[in-house]
Amino acid sequence: MNAIDEVKSMIEKARKAQAIYCSHFDQDDVDATVKLATKAIFDHAEELAKLAIEETQMGVYTDKVAKNRNKSKGVWYDLKGKKSMGILNIDERTGLIEIAKPIGVVAGVTPMTNPIVTPMSKIAFALKTKNAIIIAPHPKAKKCSTAAVKLILEAIAPMEVPEGMVQVVEEPSLEKTQALMSLCDVTVATGGMPMVKSAYSSGKPSFGVGAGNVQVILDRHIDFEYVAGKVVTGRSFDNGIICSGEQSFIYPKEEREAVLEAFRKCGAYIANNEEREKILNAIFEDGHTARDVVGQSVQTIANKAGIQVPEGTRVIVVESNGSYGHNDPISKEKMCPVMGAFPYQYFDEAIEIAQTNLSFEGNGHTAGLHSNNQANIIKAGTELSVSRLIVNAICATTAGGSIQNGLPVTNTLGCGSWGNNSISENFTYKHLLNITRVAPLSARIHVPTDEEIWK
User: Fold this and answer.
1) DSSP 440
2) Is there a contact between 407 and 393 (Cβ–Cβ < 8 Å)?
3) Which residues are registered as beta bridge partners of 413?
4) Which of 261, 227, 222, 252 minimizes the C-alpha distance to 347?
5) How many CA atoms within 13 Å lie on the side-chain side of 202?
6) What is the number of H-type helices and E-type strands within the chain?
7) pTM of the predicted structure, to 2 decimals
8) Which is it for strands 97-102 and 86-90: parallel, antiparallel or unpaired?
9) Segments making up each domain of the chain, as ranges
10) Cβ neighbours of residue 401 under 8 Å, at least 6 residues apart?
11) pLDDT band, residue 196 (cuts 50/70/90)
12) CB of 295 within 8 A of CB of 238?
């Protein structure tokens, strides 16, 4: 069977399964299924983290374990008790009735950087909304992603979910993924920009993500060491492959020594001018992050750059060359535990630096701010072209949703029109619903005269 026929067969199987699932599963059945699906990843967090490390050769085992646990329980916490079928709402004033309906078959394109939790969340969202889903993993993460899907299938088997409701392309290829995106009803693509662009040009509705390049502003009058600990933790998490991970920090110029010392105490190595160029040459090739540094350790980066860093170093900090944006490559996204540092004289300049770096790369994604000044928090939220502004928290682990911050837990972070995306929020189950709106005329609503309207 050729690639196209294989995908067509999977789509046909998915449609038959979805029809049965829709007719036989009520809201309680669906929620019980989603709980089992997410808990499968939680229960096998260590095993799946090990498989991901072995196959992709990137990231940090303990961080992947934490990610598998926190994302799976966070997704279930968000979906638990949410109505996702039938009548969702009746407006008492207008009588407008909103009725939820599934879209059909979802193509879930997943990356090698998050090969376990991304399939999990897409499957949970699809099952919650009575959509069938076919996961197309990155070829370099096919084994661990397939293992995750199979564990989910085993977990939901007691619910008698029809065969074909959840499938995975076990031998993925570009041809199969493109065929899947063109034959499905909606694509949810998480991965590199070429794949996301391919999804948007597939001819079917698509949800994709933009590039990340999280700029973090450190306001005045904060505890620099406490904040440095959060920033370093975010940048070092899973060796820097998280798209929402901190990429640069922007600090008060007059506090340079205090800020850099705070970062040193938290495990950062501050590169000198000579080392700066060696590091830039090591992590960038043709203006992009070099493939052999993605998700690699600090020591691997240092060895490639030909520099020495103290044992226990968690991140390497490269100070700016006095400029920012396209005038300094450290302004770009770096998918490894290296980050930039930029001084500012006044808060408006901090916002200008952050926005310029975002416009260079990562527009629409996420920014961070550590501040005790509510006016500055609102100002940054108003002026920065990001879909998320994370305040006084670790961006890497909370931008994708947190029980405490109100953002839906997900692995697909929309970047709005700034990042050439269709949504500017965290992708979740509601994006996989079609809504029929039943709209009667309400006698309770007074129809104003022309004079009343234009008065």
Assistant:
1) P
2) no
3) 426
4) 252
5) 30
6) 16, 17
7) 0.95
8) antiparallel
9) 3-208+427-438, 214-401
10) 74, 78, 407, 408, 409, 410, 426
11) confident
12) yes
| 144 among known catalytic residues | no
Q: Which of 144, 243, 336, 395 is catalytic?
A: 243
One-letter amino acid identity for 104? G
Instruction: Say if CB 40 and CB 152 are below 8 A apart.
Output: yes
Q: Rounded mean pLDDT of 217-226?
A: 98
Q: What is the pLDDT of residues 259-309, one digit of tens each?
A: 999 999 999 999 999 999 999 999 999 888 999 999 999 999 999 999 999
Output the CA–CA distances (angstroms, integers) from residue 210 to 90, 200, 207, 435, in the order listed.
35, 12, 10, 26
Tokens of 256: 């340079």
List for the chain the helix, strand, coil content (%; round to 5).
Answer: 50, 20, 35
Report angle CA 356, 361, 364 to the nearest 5 degrees.
85
Measured CA to CA, the distance from residue 299 to residue 7 in angstroms comes to 42
Instruction: Tell me how far apart the alpha carbons of residues 375 and 68 are, in angstroms, rounded to a whole number.
Output: 36
- Alpha carbon distance 114, 107 (integer Å): 17
Amino acid letter, residue 288: H
The CATH superfamily holding the domain 214-401 is Aldehyde Dehydrogenase; Chain A, domain 2 (3.40.309.10)
Residue whose pair of structure tokens reads 């498989």 in the numeric block: 51
CATH of 3-208+427-438, one of 3.40.190.150, 3.40.605.10, 3.40.50.720, 3.40.50.2000: 3.40.605.10
What DSSP string describes 18-49? HHHHHHH--HHHHHHHHHHHHHHHHHTHHHHH
Distance, in Å, from the CA atom of 367 to the CA atom of 357, rounded to the nearest integer, reads 11
Distance CA 170, CA 311 (A): 40
